[in-house]
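dumping this here so i dont lose it again. seq + smiles for coenzyme A
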Amino acid sequence: VTEEVRIRRAQEGDVKPIARLAADLVRMHHAVDPGRFLLVDRVEEGYGWWLSRELARAEAVVLGAFRGEHLVGYAYGTLEDRDWNRLLDAHGAVHDVYVETSHRRHGVGRSLVVAIVAALEHMGAARIVLSTMVGNVGAQALFQACGFRPTMLEMTRS
Ligand SMILES: CC(C)(COP(=O)(O)OP(=O)(O)OC[C@H]1O[C@@H](n2cnc3c(N)ncnc32)[C@H](O)[C@@H]1OP(=O)(O)O)[C@@H](O)C(=O)NCCC(=O)NCCS
């Protein structure tokens, strides 16, 4: 029997388990293209430090997905100002969405995206923009299913 997944705002006590998942996300990207995606030493610690700071900011939202007490995924987004370089007016940005491997394809990712979109819209975002690695077709399918359309293609030369 699978316990229901509950999504709520992350608190200081959630930082460590979230940072562990975030580190997986960092390693996953680095493994695919190390010339583009960084990997630092002690990435859990570094991410935890960053997340603690973000939790204190009114423009940031961090959500955790929990099965009982167990964290199975998280999402992180922020409100951003107008960006002339990107031709992008004030917007909400989704930076991370991650679901633990063994809990995938049960709707947790979709619930996290729906919840972070709702939170950013509630905070005033008129549009929401995110980036996903070009080869990450699973994530792209999830985001398209949640109403996102492809808009920019980043290119890197090493
Ligand atoms: C992408 C990710 C968050 C999806 O989480 P999830 O809990 O498995 O997603 P859901 O079960 O809610 O999937 C919702 C829909 O998205 C699509 N989808 C999700 N994963 C998919 C995959 N691997 N392949 C194809 N479609 C996929 C499907 O349409 C799915 O609906 P369905 O299961 O009814 O077919 C998860 O695979 C993950 O954490 N991946 C590694 C991190 C990552 O890539 N994050 C996003 C970039 S920041």
